[in-house]
Amino acid sequence: MSKTKLHVATTINGDSIEFLCEPQQTLLDVLRDELHLTGSKEGCASGDCGACSVILDGRLVCACLVLAVETNGHNVETIEGLADGDDLHPLQQKFLEHSALQCGICTPGILIAAKALLDIDPDPTETRVRYWLAGNLCRCTGYDKIVRAVLDAAAEMRAN
Amino acid sequence: MAKSAENVSKSNDYKWVGTRQVRPDGVDKVTGRASFGADLYAPNMLVGKILRSPHPHARIVSMDISKAEALPGVKAVVNKDDIRDLPSEMVPAGEMMVNYRDITRNVMAREKALYEGHAVAAVAAISDSIAHKALSLIEVKYEVLPHVIDVMDAMKPDAPLLHEDLITTGVEPAPEKPSNIAKRVEFSQGDLESGFAAADVIVEREFTTQPVHQGYIEPHACLANVAKDGKAELWCTTQGHFVARGHCAKLLGMDISKLRVTASEIGGGFGGKTVVYLEPVALALSRKAGQPVKMVMTREEVFRASGPTSGAHMRIKIGATKDGRITAADALLHYQAGAFPGSPVQLGCMCAFAPYDLENVRAVGYDVVVNRPKVAAYRAPGAPIAEYGVECVVDELAKKLGIDPLEMRLLNAAKEGTQTVYGPKFGPVGLIETLEAAREHPHYRAPLGENQGRGIASGFWFNIGGESCATLNLSEDGSAHLVVGTPDIGGSRASLCQMAAEELGLDLDKVHPIIGDTASLGYTFLTGGSRATFATGMAVIEAARDVIDKMRERVAKIWDIPLDAVVWEHGYARPASSNAGAFEPMSIAEIAAMANKTGGPLVGNAAINAQGAGPSFGTHIVDVQVDTETGRVEILRYTAIQDAGKAVHPCFVEGQMQGGAVQGIGWALNEEYVYGEDGKLQNAGFLDYRIPVCSDVPMIDTVIVEVPNPSHPYGVRGVGETPIIPPMAAIANAIEQAIGIRFNALPMSPPKVLAAIEASNSAVADAAE
Amino acid sequence: MARVVLNGNLKQLSGGRSEFELDVKDVRQLFAQLGERYPELAPHLEEGIAVAIDGEIFQDALFATIGPDSEVHVIPKIAGG
Fold it and tell me: Active-site positions of B?
């Protein structure tokens, strides 16, 4: 038994979290298998589907392309932190109102990606939304209701 | 036997049916709380991994698992010796009948590896890395055999033989020698020869399509837990946990009722999760190891080893008079089944000409095995392929005759009383309504620019009913627990609750649904065939009516009046008339509060085999723009029109139409498996097997028409499958209008479009010289 | 007498004959009579087929009623994906 696990201290959804992991484990592996934050999903493990989208130091990334050890001392936001206690984020609320999900497997990744967009551009055009979300695959919805929900959430957030 | 139309509630005065409520599982799905196949963890859990054949075709000469078993941390190794060898036996599963002899071999290879990625052994270990190491220690001796990948090549007499005992059925007299042709089917009516003789114009074309994967974002995943006394629990992502239970029990040689299967939330299926891959293996590993075993496919494994739909080679010939009346239609379909027989070619033959009212028609199909993963159902299996060819030929005929393509379809449209090629006449159907809605739609008249074109196409799917159970448990406070057995892939839970609330007269937020596991509910067939809202819906309605009758009985006792003097109206038991007595109406909450004292708990049950599914027709309109420098085809505008019978929850009906249309766009414009000469898959990932992304498509406009299905209390028709059928031909027809080139092969991806444009330009240049 | 038609490949197992007039009152009797007449057809009537009675499709419905003037089509079973 010569493997040594590494100690990582990070912040996840505002909480100080420490964990042990192997050097090759990705952030996605650790979130799901060690911390049991299973909201981020594995669709491909190669950064092509976006189902594992999280925000790292304010930047949208695929958790399967980040080594867990890279988060040491950094800030991670996942789907579990999107709602504010009992209050859903406007994106979450609009997704429900517009029925912008069918099976729901891509939904956490798309919500995080959409939040990252609205964080930097509160008034995106439909085209910008579509290109921004091009890294998040959805096979069920055809994207129509997703885009409508994001635009509607943006409008609501601007109004408040 | 005709169902009376009074069965169908004529009222448009529904409180819940037809409205757009937030789905009951919605909050869980938008917060990451919902549990999908890979989201469950068990104490003492092992990781299971599969060893897969690197060869597309090989005899498995020997296998030595001893070194793998000896590796510290490995708790079990299994291969064919741990899964039952089963004789030939046909059972329904997903798209059509499957043969147990083939299922067991697909789950775990026995004599041969028949495709690259075919499972040959599996291990369970305490960690991922040890499991991987163990796989590398399994020694397999293969005798590599020549392989065959293409359907037409596989039909040649000198083709490598996949199954030494495969004799083509459906051919008279039966062939003496085995081949790769599993089956020939034929459907015909009328007189083809005289039909073509009566035609003024005949168009005959050959088409090729490639296998495409269902593309669900969630890979196959399960967690199996077998106790020392053989009782087993299985958590898996599946379209049908009762079907999975049956397959697994059979393959492991256990009583069906000893295996309890719970369906996780499912991250997409589209037919691909109606069959088992990992599940029997995980159970076998858990049984051997005595610990829970979790198995999750990688994306690469999903592509290499789980079923896509068939690729095909087809010849379609249609003749028409100069006024546009089709006089004869003939289809010859060759579908590849993958490594074991069972492509949906028979369904393709039955559907191909279904949108047309024809006298003289024939459809012949061949089911052919090749060294690729065994195909699985994909949304209206068989129909999208055949319809691509047929709708392209109809379009070409219309153009040759100078008739508008919509008018041509209206002229020949199937309607109530039309004789289908597979036998029965149609009851009420809505094809004409969708065509007329297309004609009226502003999309059809919008102006087009240079290199832009418009195409239309129609599609048909039978839809099915099937076994469905439902239980409505009334709690002491009058709220209701609705237990159903069809996993919710697209929001059906919401529609089912709406139907229950409508029947009971209960507020929607008092109806709480769960998908019961196989021990908690009667046998329910899988979610597929566009049946959940229809068939489970019928069961829910029947369960609601059952508990209403029971509540009426209680109230009759409470008021001490005859049963038929108590009526149920809008959630209350009332006296039928003033003669019955001046009783205050009783609400569900009041009746439920007294349940224990008046006879016991109030439960409504239904266990049915729903019949009377109504087919759904659809018509799509698409505008494209072709970039003649890159070959890229852009979808400018898309309108999907479909007959839903009755849209219980319009958002989810629209969602099915939009999702199916975009899958069809991917099928038309980019998706295909790329194999090397070595028979190995080169694009086993989402980067190079590119499905449509958000920026590839515009908004998908939808129009729902409603021609009620007389066999359903609310007139519901299944809608999930039809939307994937029209897009490929609609897009091919649009491209033809845009640049004058007709594509007879899918996908119409940029390299292929560009090559065709360049070939056409140089042909023009040659002609000019 | 109900008019019964065998569709697709089924008539290959009935000596090429596809149309029948049969005195049957439900699907089970229909299968029994056809199976007796054509033993090679019998196993195929147990699984994998559906019956359309006056246009309405029945799958796995042994006791579905067949009327004296019914038109009955025996067709392959349909499922979906």
Answer: 721
Asked if residue B68 belongs to a domain, the reply is: no
Which class in CATH covers the domain with range A90-159?
A: mainly alpha
Q: Do B and A share at least 3 CB pairs under 8 Å? A: yes
Domain count, chain B: 2
- Number of helices and strands (H, E) in chain B? 20, 28
The domain made up of A6-81 is a member of CATH 3.10.20.30:
yes
Q: Tokens in use for B692?
A: 């449509």
Q: Are A143 and A132 in contact (CB under 8 A)?
A: no
Q: Look up the CATH superfamily of C2-76.
A: Beta-grasp domain (3.10.20.30)
Confidence category of residue B764, pLDDT binned at 50, 70, 90: confident
The DSSP output letter for B311 is P
- Contact residues, chain B, for C43 at CB < 8 Å: none
User: What is the reported pTM?
Assistant: 0.95
pLDDT at C81: 66
What CATH number corresponds to the domain at position B580?
Answer: 3.30.365.10
Of B2 and B148, the one with more pLDDT = B148
Max Cα–Cα distance, chain B, nearest Å: 100
Do C50 and B347 contact (CB within 8 A), yes or no?
no
C62, C42, C24, C74: which is closest to B609 by C-alpha? Answer: C62
Residue type, B91: V
For residue B7, pLDDT beyond 60 = no
Together in a domain, B497 and B595: yes
| CB pairs B-C closer than 8 Å | 134
Q: Which residues contact B440 (CB under 8 A, 6 or more apart)?
A: none
Residue at A157: amino acid letter: M
| Cβ within 8 Å, pair A144-B699 | yes
Q: ipTM score here?
A: 0.97
Mean pLDDT computed over B182-189: 95
In chain A, what are the domain boundaries? Answer: 6-81, 90-159
Output DSSP code: residue B753: H
Kindly state whether residues B518 and B590 are assigned to the same domain: yes
pLDDT in tens, B215-274: 999 999 999 999 999 999 999 999 999 999 999 999 999 999 999 999 999 999 999 999
Contacts of B299 in chain A (CB under 8 A): 43-46, 48-49
CB B541 within 8 A of CB B476: no
Residue B325 lies in a domain: no
State the Cα–Cα distance between residues B30 and A93, nearest whole angstrom: 8
Rounded to the nearest integer, the mean pLDDT of chain B is: 95
What are the pLDDT digits (tens) for C6-31?
998 888 889 889 999 999 999 999 99
The whole-angstrom separation of Cα A49 and Cα A55 is: 16
- Domain assignment present for residue B758? The answer is yes
Task: Look up residue B539 and give its amino acid.
Answer: A
Please write the tens of the pLDDT for every residue from B660-701: 999 999 999 999 999 999 999 999 999 999 999 999 999 999
